[in-house]
Specification:
The protein is α+β, with helices and mostly antiparallel strands and about 280 residues long. About 50% of the residues lie in helices and about 15% in strands. The protein has helices at about 5-15, 20-35, 40, 50, 55-75, 80-85, 85-100, 100-130, 155-175, 185-195; strands at about 45, 200-205, 210-225, 225-235, 240-245, 255, 265. Strands 1, 2, 3, 4, 5, 6 and 7 form a seven-stranded mixed beta sheet that branches.
């Protein structure tokens, strides 16, 4: 994957704002890591058995990601999902103090472009994959202006782009602004993207009478139901669930055709609560 032009653009920005050599190197290295994420591989449907071989590695990353944000959830008395915003906002504040806020404003144009490529790959993957039926709520569904209409495969591809943008930018600014001897909480998030995760969401789940927040990642896989979005829940030792493109997040199907033991009872983005 050739991203030399994007790196060259980032280097021009660091020089424009007279970033010192140490900060410039951090910016360029973080940028290289983000740009190296291969969205073509992410959205190429993997054989289920082949995907499950990667689960031990993915599980390790998800544990690291969960613990990275648990400290913020505890400190600010909030959910794991909401806690992700605190290190992002802290880093933005620190960038203003350090005089590099304007530089990040420009640099994020490059990472946003990367997220758009990620979203475009998601859309083409959705076109090929299994999709939920067109919304039918008794009225005419606007297939042209569908962003604020019922959840569809096109909205889902946009959502993947949106979250990739948040995560890429948050990783980048935290990598530069992190304190000495501290870690970047978004590092394991990027590791999950590097391992082929298409989306990354903390969800409120209920199973066996226990409600808890679990990290959910989406992966494109081939199953007996076709080319779908595999739904992997934290601590599951195999891929048990899937969704068709455009299925609401609350609607998960089991790969083996049995009744799902788990329910999705809450997510941060409440646009997708069912009627």
């Amino acid at each position: 994957m050739n991203y030399a032009n994007d790196i060259a653009k980032a280097e021009v920005i660091t020089k424009k704002y007279r970033m010192d050599d140490k900060i410039s190197l951090l910016v360029l290295n973080a940028m290289k890591r983000i740009l190296a994420i291969n969205e073509k591989n992410t959205f190429a449907y993997q054989d289920l058995a082949h995907f499950e071989k990667s689960l031990p590695k993915i599980q390790g990353m998800k544990k690291l990601a969960t613990e990275s944000f648990r400290q913020f959830a505890t400190r600010y008395h909030t959910s794991l999902c909401a806690s992700m915003g605190f290190p992002m906002m802290n880093a933005i504040t620190d960038s203003k103090t350090a005089g590099v806020y304007e530089a990040f404003y420009e640099i994020f144009g490059i990472t946003n472009a990367k997220a758009k490529r990620f979203g475009l790959a998601a859309l083409y993957s959705a076109i090929k994959g299994e999709k939920t039926n067109i919304p039918n709520n008794g009225g005419i569904y606007n297939i042209v202006f569908d962003r604020d209409s019922p959840w569809t495969y096109r909205n889902e591809a946009e959502h993947m782009e949106e979250y990739a943008r948040y995560h890429f930018n948050s990783y980048l600014i935290n990598e530069i602004m992190k304190k000495p001897n501290s870690t970047n909480p978004f590092d394991p998030v990027i590791s999950l993207y590097e391992s082929g995760a298409a989306d990354f969401i903390f969800m409120q789940t209920k199973q066996d009478g226990i409600t808890e927040e679990r990290l959910c990642t989406f992966h494109t896989v081939k199953t007996s139901a076709g080319d779908v979005i595999g739904v992997h829940m934290m601590d599951d030792d195999r891929l048990q669930y899937y969704r068709k493109w455009g299925d609401p997040y609350f609607k998960i199907r089991t790969i083996d055709g049995t009744t799902a033991k788990i329910k999705i009872v809450g997510i941060a983005d409440q646009r997708f609560i069912p009627d």
